[in-house]
Amino acid sequence: MSDNENAPKRSGNTTAIVVLLAIVIGLLLYYAMPSIVVAICVPIMIIGVYEIAVSFTRNSNPDRFGTSDSTAALFWGFLFLAIGGAGMIHSFTGNIIFAIVFFLIIMIFFFLAKKHN
Q1: Per residue in 51-78, is it b (16+ CB within 10 Å) or e — as a string?
Q2: Above 50 in pLDDT, residue 22?
Q3: Which element (helix H / strand E) includes 54?
Q4: Closest to 86 (Cα-Cα) out of 66, 104, 71, 73
Q5: Residue 11: DSSP 8-state
Q6: Averaged over 84-107, what is the pLDDT?
Q7: How far is CA 7 from each of CA 16, 20, 47, 57, 94, rounded to the nearest angstrom?
Q8: Domain range for 89
Q9: How many structural domains does the chain have?
Q10: Could you tell me the sign of the dihedral formed by the alpha carbons of 8, 55, 89, 87, in that order?
């Protein structure tokens, strides 16, 4: 059995560990400051940052649909980061305009990162 055959299994295990740690951090934050929005948005942001980091290790060859594993992971990472960050901004400021602007800025960063690759 080669080392590459275990790569998806290790990646899945690592992702599960990161998701569980993000949930634990969210629960601890909810215990520290009883805000359900913070308890949901912070784990979403952690998972987004993880997906962005992992996207650089994924296969960048396009598949039959025209995308690659790397681009898909990068997209979902930026999307999770944008949603979680927009939720946090709206939670703390109460201003939906700031949240929308943050979301759009993060998604622009995705398109710039995708164009750079």
Answers
A1: bbebbeebeeeeeeeeebbbbebbbbbb
A2: yes
A3: helix 36-55
A4: 104
A5: H
A6: 92
A7: 14, 20, 19, 11, 43
A8: 4-116
A9: 1
A10: negative
